Amino acid sequence: MVNNFLSTALSAHLADNITALYAEDLLFSAGTGNDILVNHNKLIRNDKIYWLDRLHNNSYENDFFDLMDRFVIYLNSTCYTGQVG
Fold this sequence. Notes:
By secondary structure, the protein is mostly helical. The chain is built from two helices and four strands; from the N terminus they run H-E-E-E-E-H. The chain folds into two domains: about 5-50, no CATH class; about 55-85, no CATH class. The chain has a two-stranded antiparallel ribbon with strand order 1-4. A two-stranded antiparallel ribbon has the order 2-3.
């Protein structure tokens, strides 16, 4: 466990983002399957999803991705994971 990996401020901003997206009905119905065949059966999954993406150009999502990128670089340099970042 790592204390303060995700800052309280960034966590709060991301939570505010998802709350706003929910209020604006911008979350997507979750489904099962893949890109070719997706099943939206509410008896199996009735939750909503929202994929984070740099293309959204949201500063807090991008801050999160920057943190993840730095973490991957750290893992690559300390654990020899062999991933290219």
